Every structure is written in structure tokens, then in C-alpha cells.
Description:
The structure holds two protein chains of two kinds.
Chain A: H1 9-24, H2 31-41, H3 49-60, H4 64-78, H5 111-115, H6 123-130, H7 139-150, E1 158-167, E2 171-172, H8 174-183, E3 193-200, E4 203-208, H9 214-230, E5 234-239, E6 243-245, H10 255-265, H11 275-291, E7 296-300, H12 310-322, E8 325-330, H13 343-348, E9 354-357, H14 361-373
Parallel strand pairs in A: 4-5, 4-7, 7-8, 8-9
Antiparallel strand pairs in A: 1-3, 2-3, 5-6
Chain B: H1 15-24, H2 31-43, E1 47-51, H3 57-67, E2 72-76, H4 83-86, E3 88-90, H5 92-104, H6 110-117, E4 123-125, H7 127-133, E5 138-142, H8 149-161, E6 163-166, E7 170-173, E8 179-184, H9 192-197, E9 199-203, H10 208-218, H11 224-239, H12 248-260, H13 268-274, H14 282-291, H15 293-302
Parallel strand pairs in B: 1-8, 1-9, 2-5, 5-8
Antiparallel strand pairs in B: 3-4, 6-7
Amino acid sequence: MPKELVLVSDTTQTMVGFARTLRAAGVEASTDRVQALLSALSQLDVTYGRDAYWAGRLTMCAGPLDVERYNAAFAAYFGNELPRVARVGLVPQQPKLISVQTAPDQNMGEDEDLQSNPMLSKASDIELLRRKDFAALSEAERDEARRLLARLDVRGPSRRSLRWTPAPRGGVDARRTVRAMLRRGGEIEEIYARRHRPRPRRIVELIDVSGSMEMYADAHLRFAHVLTRRRPDVEVFTIGTRLTRVTRQLTVRDPDAALRAVGTAVPDWSGGTRLGELLKAFLDRWGQRGTARGAVLVIASDGWERGDATLLGEQMARLHRLAHAVIWVNPHAGKEGYVPATAGMTAALPYIDALVAGHNVAAFEALAQRLSQEGNSGA
Amino acid sequence: MAVNAVSNGAVPDSPDTLQSRLESVGYLADTGLATAAYLAIRMGRPLFLEGEAGVGKTALAHALAQLYDAPLIRLQCYEGIDAAQALYDWDFPRQLLHLRASEAAGINDVKQLEGELYDRRFLLARPLLQAIETSPSVLLIDEVDRADDEFEAFLLEVLSDFTISIPELGTIKAIEPPIVVVTSNRTREVHDALKRRCLYHWLEHPAYDREVAIIRRRLPEVTERLATEVAAAAQLLRLRDLLKPPGVAESIDWTRALLMLGARTLDVDAAARTLGAVLKYREDTDRITAEGLESLIGSIGRG
């Protein structure tokens, strides 16, 4: 490629400097991309601002968000030569808060001094703990419960893929059979069978982190962490007053570190809930585009909706049409005499495939099992 | 490897030239898209187009094929697509037939027979191999976001050097790499490595003037008034919070539907009867109807 570079060294230097600005602005301007940019420029009239803009944008960006950052960096670096282009059709991302706002008493990271406590070692104690409400746990018990959650056996749902795999029984695998025939000079010796290969079905968890869910959100995030570690294609969001995608934060191996990362990323711990609005935000931004399609949706919330629940009902209907199954985990559902009577729950109920409890370790074990059953249609 | 995409004397010398040439085949591209296509051709890189459904991603590939009088080879991606469906496959039934025929003719030379069985004529060329064997050609890899991510790695390999090696046959290399257009609806994030091989362009809905021009271009029989009204209404609909905002494809469909009904202008009655051509979700239809078509039509009249 160097042969084609008819650029004066000035341009090269200018562009390398520009690439640095881009990197500072958050666009991944790798060396091969810079090279592509230079080779693009050699095809264009460099002195012309518009062409330089497009050459850079086409080679440096990898998504609409990049385009926005690129525009800003271009304007900053080249002055006001930015050609007029249509605004990229994405809502600008809200800046994330950096401070953690968890309640001090249920903070993680103080496991060290508690680990020396040799209690809860007996099986019967563990059995008791499994059935004890998260809200009623002492610090030491909570620690043990977290360990139990981390060891949870999650197999999760699967679905049929288009791909075929050899199988002892199933449809006739014509290709393999004929190939074997060819090998044997045209004699049929065996008829091979094949079946659709099952693949993991996507799981999407929406976790309510509002004030009323304070005691349970931690357990749900830990459950989500186990899912993320053990299975491909898991997406986790928190909902409160804002929708936050925390999938990336949860990929850290250590559960406590992962939870700390989530704590930093989520700006709305223990606030109010706007379930309907946030569900809509999720569906608009992610769900409809594909995240919710054919997935098993797990909503962890007590269904406390401030104000009118009509929107929640509408959005649940929409979600139900996109998702393969919707499981609502309500911490109160496991308690005796529970009736889903809150406005939010009533609105959501017609669109839920299963309403399950989520108040203790045993409930989470049941949820894990439920997840494996859900969505195995046609596998 | 640049400037070899199209050798039949049609390599444009600037984005503007390409823009006007595209216009001559009925595709109205804006500066950004024209520059993107121009660079893709000159640099021999695939063009990765992303944007909402119906903004004209696929149409660009059609226009380029028409412009260069080259066949458009289309690879429609879907979940579970694999190499046998994208690249090549052996025609087993025919091979078998050949084997039986040779036996009947009394040919027993194993080596010769084997050589014959894996001949090019028993190879079924799927889109990618077709595109490599046909020059010039335009290869459209449509909706790559629907394929699995493993497929992307495979595509990356083919798009890097336009060479396919077939164990039984040898290596097939493109004499002249095809012009490649890759489209994505962004239902899934496509891997960065693939994008890095390409020129990336985010395609927007066209501005009002351009949309009017596109409609008039595609449907020459339409009156200017109807075209402007439909374009204005489509622009307004895109501002609403709809599940599926209409793309240019929908505007054209809508105009066509209106023409079928013999409508000369976009009035409330005609709009109500043809709303299904623009709005593809019941919720969207309900919503616009509830807000009143009168207000929608009313606000375009003066615009």
C-alpha cells in the first residue's frame, strides 16, 4: 500500500495527530485504521474538508456512537470545518455516575473478618439458611447465602438451532449417507441420521434496584453473575429510575468484584421505580432490536409501580410477544397468603408465563430449575 | 490491490462522479454514501452499511450492479448459515450417478475415477464462490447481523483475500475482487474485526428534499404534490415515538398504494385506507389514528 500514498508528510502527521484526538474521544483508532484512513485520503482530494471528514468517518467508526464521538473530535481538531451532516439517530448516552450509593450495612467486601466465624457448617444449618428470607439474614448468614448462590447449578434453557449434528436417531442425513456410499463405491452400508443441534437460549434479566427491592437486588445480581459466568448469551439490566446495562460489569470472575463494578455503574440504587417507562426504554433500545426476541426474560421486581400501571401493562404485552417466556420473580410471592394485588402486578399478570418466589436460596434453586425447563420446546 | 474492482473503464474519478452516475440509474445517494461507495470501489474494501430497515442499504447494491452492468450476487444471512450454504458444496447425487455410469462403462482405474469425481463440474457454487468466480460482480451480504457470530469469522477470512481453497480441487482466487456491500440492521453488534476490514457507513433516513426526489425518481407517474405530501408525512411520522418508523421503502410503498387508489393528494380518507403501507405495527396504527389523521395531514399541508 505505501506506494499509493501520494500524500505529503504533513498530511500523515496531521492525521496521526487526529487519530490521537480520536482515541482520547473514545474512538478506537488503531494503527490499521489509520493506515486505511491514509490510503482513503490518497484517493480523495485532501485539501477539501468534506472529503477528509468522510475518509476519516468511514475508516475510523464502528457504530453510531462512534460517529457522534468522531464528529466532536473532528470539530475539535480541525476547527469548524465540520461539514453539515444529519444527526445520527441515537439518543445520547447519559453520563454515568461514579459514586456508589449502596446502603452501608449491606455493603460487600467485608467478607474477610466474617470468614473466620466457623458457624453454619452443619448441613441442618444450611438447610435452615436455604429457607430463610434474605431480608431476615444476619451479616454472617448473608455471606454464607452468597456462597450458596455462587455454587448454584444453572443449566438454563436451550433451543433448536438450524444446524445439524450427527445423531443415533433422527432424520436421514443424506449428505453423510451419500458420502459414505461414494467411499464404498456406491454401496449403501448404513443410513446415517442427524438432528438439529440444540443451542443455549438467550436469558435476559431485568433487576429492579429500587428501594423496596433493596434486600433482594443483591441476591438477584449474584444469580445473574452465576448465569453470566456459566452460559453464553446472557444480558442483565438494572431498572429503578434508569435503565442500566450491567452485562459487561458482571463478566468479572470474582462475584464480589463484579458486584462492586455493578455498584459503580448503576446510578439509581434504592430510588423509586418507573417500571412501565423503563420496560419501554428496554424494549425500544434493546428488546425489539433482538435482545428480547426468543429469549427467556426474567424480571426481578416486587411490581411496585408508582402511579398509573397502564403503560406497564402495554409494555408487558409487547415483551410477551417478543420473548419466548417471561418469568416474574417476586420476593413476596413465596410468602404465605401472598396475592398479586399491587397495581403493577395486576397489570403485568396476564403476560407472565410464571410468577415465582425469590426471597431465599431455595427459591433461587427452584428458579434455576425453572429456567432449564422453560424454553426447551423443540430441542 | 486497489483500483481493480471494475476494469471495464467505469472507475469513477471522484465521489461526485459516482454520485451522478448512481443518479443516472435511479439511486440518489448523499455525499457521505457516495464517498463511501467511491472509496469502497477504489480501495477494494467491502462497504459495511448499517442503519434502520428501509433506508436503502440493499438498494445501493442493486444500483451498483446496474451501474456496472455486473451480476448482483446475494448472500442472505440467517441464523445457522454455514460454509456449505455460503461457499460451495459437492453435488453428491451427480457424483454418484457419474460413479455408476463409469462402472457400467467398465472403467476401473480408481485414481482416474477419483479425479473425475472431484471435478469442478460437480462443485455447486454458493454465493461467495460465485462472486469470486464472476468478474466483475457485486456481492451483497445481506443482514449479516442475523448470522451467528462464528459465521463472521468465516466471512472475514473470505473477504480478506477473496481466495477460497477447496481441499479436493485447489485454490480459487478472484481475478478481480467483487464490489462487496455488507448490510446490517443492527439487531446485534457485529464483531469489530469484521467492521475493521470494511468501510463503515451509518445510513440515515434521507432529508425531506432528497426523499421527495427519491419518490419521484422511483415512481415517475406521481404528481409533485403527492410526492411532497407523502415525504412530509413520512418525516413527521419518524419524529413520533413509533415502534417501527417508516423508511424510504415504506414511503415509496405508500405512494404506490395511493397511486393505485387513484389518489392525487394525500387526504385524510386516502391516508386512512393506505396506512398499512407505512405503519407495520398495530400499536403504531392505533396510535396515529388516535392522535387523529387530520392533525397529521393538516400539519403537512402548510409545511
